[in-house]
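Input set for joint prediction.
Command: fold jointly, output tokens.
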Amino acid sequence: MGLSPFNLLFAELEVGKHLYWQIGNIRIHGQVFMTSWILIGALLTLVVVGTKKMERDPKGVQNLLEFLWDYIRDLARTQIGEKVYRDWMPFIGTLFLFIFVSNWGGALIPWRFIKLPSGELGAPTADINTTVALALLVSLSYFYAGLSNKGLRYFEYYVHPTPIMLPFKIVEDFTKPLSLSFRLFGNILADELVVAVLVFLVPLVLPVPVMFLGLFTSAIQALIFATLAAYYIGEAVEEHH
Amino acid sequence: MTSLILFGASEGGLFDFDATLPLMAVQVVILTFILNTLFFKPVGKVVEEREGYVVSSLAEAKKKLAEVEQLEADLKSQLKEARQSAQSVISEAEADSDNLFREALALATAEANASREETRREIDSQKKSALNQIKLDAEKLGELIVDRLLASK
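tokens >
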């Protein structure tokens, strides 16, 4: 192997290195939780400030929050349907907001200036554990939504047009969380890596358009994740006739 | 080495699953409940209240508009009626005054005619009496002249 430039580059970027926190006999990725707490804190601060004094004529942050609320409601309503979207709106909204602040926080905040003993701070969604956790929550949610709305008739969905679909639908239950988690993880990590590599190679001007592209991708990924989660839940609660 | 670092060596790697996963899931679930209480419920309440307010205001405004239109139509018909009645009063009054004028004219004409007749009659009788007087006087004069003539002879 030796010290190829490629190796040096990744040594600089510290890909796949984590700051481990040992709690009892379990280990967690400290940098993921640190950034997620900071970003969740920022999100909650925004929410608390915006809902402190709400009026019928919205002012300031309340406008932003109402815009977000309306956006999330439209998303949930179009995907899940008029009947049960209210139950799932907080979950879809939380997914969207959490992924959005994670992605944008990872891209916009100069974490690089905070040195850690190991690993580096970045978007929590650039860690596979976070995206798999979110994707598994989505899987649990659509199973729960289907079973609580239709009982055991939910499993009719597996043989819906014809029983031939059964194996495909079972495989789908595994591919859904897999694609959800890897799509988000891959996009965000790739964006971070591209920006880091460009900054490393050409520190001036060139990374800026890529950073803007990264912001765009980040927002799109949050929207895609929330929309797909809502779509899966909607698919599970949909009545077949 | 690179591949080991990227794809999960014993220590670290991109696909290093550990307790971060369940803890992150728990954290997101907790965040869902917190955001539900702090964000989705209160903002939803405000937005839905406003939507209700807008809908009810719109319905009220529509009702009021219908009322206004009804009132306008009522007033228009009342105005039309009033105009008609005013017109009829005017034409009645005109007819009345016309009648009065005609009556008064007829009366005056009749009176004038009557007084003219009376005057004429009076003149006639005076003329007649004057003629009689003259005739008498002429007869008397004639007799006197005859007497004188006879006396002188």
